[in-house]
């Protein structure tokens, strides 16, 4: 029993966080928003150079053959930065799915290098994110996994409150040519994608929550009223302390969920769902607290808070909303043994 | 990250489970905070635990422990709560003063005080707070005046848990005349039956006499009963408070067992299909799990050589709020029976939920109020200005 992350497990997150420090501050977000472009090519290039897309791809296919927990820090860093580009879905979900489903080697190589990005259309999400910039889309049809080239799909843009979320309804025709996996094999691939999607959404929300606290602390130290920084007031301190408590008690759930994510059993799924609920609650409270502490500025586009509030709002309902995940927690709670000796229980796979 | 128990850890669990199955009293002991009889029954249980060397498993073997690490301590606690074993009447001693004594005590003090603490022969109360020194503990006014090889203790201590029936207390005194605030304080032990000590029990919200006020009127104690240096009292207290809030006072198993009982109550009251009830219960269960995972993370970090920091404050807020919410959920399931004492003829199986709820309301206050903890988090963890 050792509940600490190894240096290797935090390495990728730290590398990506460093790239984002250099390439994804508030000014960079504003610049991209003003440009109307989908992405910043130099940032995408720098992120691709970290090799993050290979983390969850098997070694014999050109990846690193690592596990969910090794990618956790990447997703947290992307949340903390409010990254516009779809690194989490491309590297954490779509590329590993393409590899697992035996997709074309040349496309996989391009995905691993970041030269091409992939989008994923999971049935739990009504729309496909970043489909317009993807070279190809991984789509579901009756449990099967299909690979559809961008020029084979019709995309209808759906406006999101998040200026960087690019959502699309995708029109396409499944065929034997597009099919990568039949339903018997596809079901578990989609199941794994859902667990990973929820897990990495939770990690992003935890990063977003901490970003909201960081921005609020900086603002409360600087903003003066009644002749002193507003952060000297207990009314401000206690709001932020309450958020930090939520963050501190979402983090170990997220880490434990990541450590056992690969099992796919009743317990692992419930813990992923718990992690998403806890990160969602922390992120929601953090974003609203940040708006409150920034006062009228927080209700405007003058400060960066709105980027993070909107991303949190989107992720709360992506990859299963609170009701979906509460139901998964409840199923485990009501059907499997409870108690202090069951904290790290594992069991048979459960749908 | 390896979230599986080693064979040695599994064997440890099996050993304590087996021992508890043969020793835990079949009927619950009467409360140690209500009567002398209940207190003494718990003292006898502490002796039984000590005979099995289960009193404080993390302590060194020479003081009656097993010298195991914090993961095994967690396993012990899990099995202890799982078995429904009696509450620890000497928790002030074994969880708070014991670790502090090991860090700051002289060899003579350790040899004198730790073995009878471990065996329950001497049960400890904490005497820190005063009527004018609660959250602002540095406002302590009780004095310790040096007189040759002795100190003369005078003052008024209050909210001392267990003091109604305990044998000893560890108190915070101003030992340097004219000193102010955090300076000039010393931590000094005194027997509660020393001439000049008067103990007045105080009724708690639940009607028990779990704490007391202590009047000290020129109480003479040997200077060898001072822990650490004269004037070092504040830093020793803060070290103790770190143990208290951070790790040992409320082990996660306590809430995991309560949450499991809550789920049983949800089922037996037929409310598993009631969305509101289910939401409250599942939140309590998740929070108990989150607390357990967090403590496993902290324990692992400490074993790897880390220090305990401001997470003592986040922990304290989390478990105290979890405890209140969990019991609120239970009372809500009991509905109109929630207000009934278990002695009411038609109470039915209401259990201890009501008393435990009332006790839970103390959680956000004791061991440093949650408001003080929020200040600590904001200033020391987040770096907001004072």
Descriptive account of the structure:
Chain A has 12 helices and 9 strands. Chain A has 351 residues and is of the alpha+beta class. In chain A, 56% of the residues lie in helices and 10% in strands. Chain A has helices at residues 7-23, 26-35, 41-49, 68-81, 87-100, 105-113, 183-222, 234-259, 266-293, 295-298, 305-317, 322-335; strands spanning 118-121, 128-129, 136-141, 144-149, 154-158, 167-171, 179-181, 224-225, 228-229. Chain A folds into 2 domains: 7-181, Orthogonal Bundle (Butyryl-Coa Dehydrogenase, subunit A, domain 1), CATH 1.10.540; 188-342, Up-down Bundle (Butyryl-CoA Dehydrogenase, subunit A, domain 3), CATH 1.20.140. In chain A, the strands form 3 sheets. A 4-stranded mixed β-sheet of chain A has the order 1-3-4-7. In chain A, α7 (183-222) runs antiparallel to α8 (234-259). Chain B is an alpha+beta fold and 386 residues long. Chain B has 3 domains: 7-89, Butyryl-Coa Dehydrogenase, subunit A, domain 1; 124-231, Butyryl-CoA Dehydrogenase, subunit A, domain 2 (Beta Barrel), CATH 2.40.110.10; 250-381, Butyryl-CoA Dehydrogenase, subunit A, domain 3, CATH 1.20.140. Chain B is 46% helix and 14% strand. Chain B has helices at 7-23, 36-51, 70-82, 91-104, 107-119, 233-248, 252-268, 275-303, 311-334, 353-360, 370-381; strands spanning 124-127, 143-147, 150-161, 168-174, 185-191, 197-202, 211-222, 226-227. In chain B, the strands form 2 sheets. Chain B has a 4-stranded mixed β-sheet with strand order 1-4-5-8. A 4-stranded antiparallel β-sheet of chain B has the order 2-3-7-6, with no helix packed on it. In chain B, β2 and β3 form a beta hairpin. In chain B, α9 packs antiparallel against α10. In chain B, 47% of the residues are buried.
